[in-house]
Amino acid sequence: MSLRCMTLFLCFAFLVLYSGFLTECFADQPQSHEGKEVSLLDCVTKALQSNPKLLSKIDERRAAKSRYKQAKTANQPRIKAEETFTRMREPLSFALPGAPQMAIGDDKLQIKTLRVSQPLYTGGKIENSIKAAGSEVNIRRFSEVQHREALTCQVVEAYISVMKANAFQQIASQALYDTEGHARQVENMLLFGSVVRNDLLKIQVSVSERKENLIRANNATKLSCNFLENLIGEELPDDVTTAEFSYMVMPPADEKKAMELARNNHPALLAMRESLRMHRFAARAAKGDLLPTIGLQWNLNSGTQLNESQSNWDATLYVGFNIFDAGEARAKVKEAKIGHQKAVHDLEGLERDISLAVQQALLQIEEAKARLEVAKEAEAQAKESMRLTEESFKAGSATSQSLLDDETALVAAEQRRITAEFDRILAETHLWFSIGGLERALFSTAQLSVCASEASIATMTQEIFATGENK
Question: Is the separation of the CB atoms in 71 and 135 below 8 Å?
């Protein structure tokens, strides 16, 4: 009878301790709190508006436009008005033989001149210089677009880094909470002699490791936020949260189609093609120094040394030919041709680099998708294994080490799944960047966030592709 009472007493004590353990666990469970949400589109917009390097590119384009306007004035007439005042020691005089000198005119002279000049023919130098200046404007514009694309890609990478760091931080926090709960459970079991002290020490070491992982995860989140703040030029609040993001307008999965879009859209390729045109125009302008030049000049003078009120005009037709300049003009022509040849090689190399980037991005997308499927399956298996091990541990048929191993396996599976998800988004970002349509894809995704029907997505995708083809 006494043995039965003792058994009932021990069971009751165990239930009391276990209920206290559950209460303590749920009381310490980390609560998710929502802070100020920042979207990717807001970050990209702020970066494009305030980034100093992009603003510098805009200034370069404006300066090129000013040089283009200056070049266009070369074939326009020039009108200058001049007025000179002269004071002579003695006035103009003459003398007849045997007679004293006679002064004519005054010792003061004032002459007013109106001069008009107009180039008539320069061997194509002016015309081609204007075209070269126009090509430079286009180059600066495409360079600005390329910098916008690169900045947008950096912002997307930083934003995804923040999302990934936040997800890892949540996993580390949950892992610490679970391990601490198991540690308390092992402590209670140690009181009843169900486990040995070595089991408690092992799980306490695991708790310390989980705390270190959480510290690293918190620091990784801060570093990612700092990098994003540097790009957008604005500090983020401490409780900032990121909105979920994925491309609703998918990049082309076919390499041939992707390369076709890249040839029509990529700003670096467009800038390189304009560079070819600019060097051709520069070579033609340099050839103009070897051809005759014709110009017209008309002068109207008011006042002479003999009569200040007398007016006169003259018209001059100027014809010049470069007979010998020590090879300067031919050297300029040769330099322009070599520059054109260099631009051809640069264009070919750039096309190869873009083709390689497109191929790598497509392979990375396929790899990330395959990894994601495997990681999801592994995560489900790890959760089920964790559940069975917890039940076995509560029943006393599993050790605390098995529990720790399953916890570690679950954390690793969750991290692999998250990494695969964000690697897929990053690969899609790099593909859009390689094509040259990242910014349009982002803003098109934002437009489709309200109406995400398949028909709308297909229409938007066709519009993006048509933009590149018709550019």
Answer: no
How confident is the model over 312-333, as pLDDT tens digits?
788 888 888 888 888 888 898 8
Whole-angstrom distance, CA of residue 40 vs CA of residue 34: 17
Name the residue range of residue 170's domain. 35-88+111-469
Residue 38's DSSP bridge partners are 242
- Mention every residue, 6+ apart, whose C-beta is less than 8 A from residue 308: 106, 109, 110
- The pTM for the full model equals 0.78
**Cα separations (Å) of 350 from 125, 225, 347, 354?**
31, 33, 5, 6
d(CA 158, CA 76): 52
Q: Structural domain tally of the chain?
A: 1
Q: Per-residue b/e over 397-418, b at no fewer than 16 CB within 10 Å?
A: ebebeebbebbbbbbebbbbbb
- Residue at 19 is within a domain: no
Neighbours of 234 (CB within 10 A): 14
CB-CB contact of 329 with 388 (8 Å): no
State the CATH number of the domain containing residue 82. Answer: 1.20.1600.10
Rounded Cα distance between 198 and 180, Å, is 16
pLDDT digits (tens, 9 = 90+) for 341-386: 999 999 999 999 999 999 999 999 999 999 999 999 999 999 999 9
Closest CA to 228 of 49, 432, 47, 53: 47
Residue 420's identity, in one-letter code, is A
Residue 17 in domain: no
Decide if 181 contacts 466 (C-beta within 8 A): no
Q: How far apart are CA 99 and CA 102, in angstroms?
A: 9
Dihedral angle over CA of 118, 120, 125, 130, nearest 10: 60
Q: What pLDDT was estimated at residue 98?
A: 63
The pLDDT tens digits for 193-231 are 777 788 888 888 989 999 999 999 999 999 999 999 999
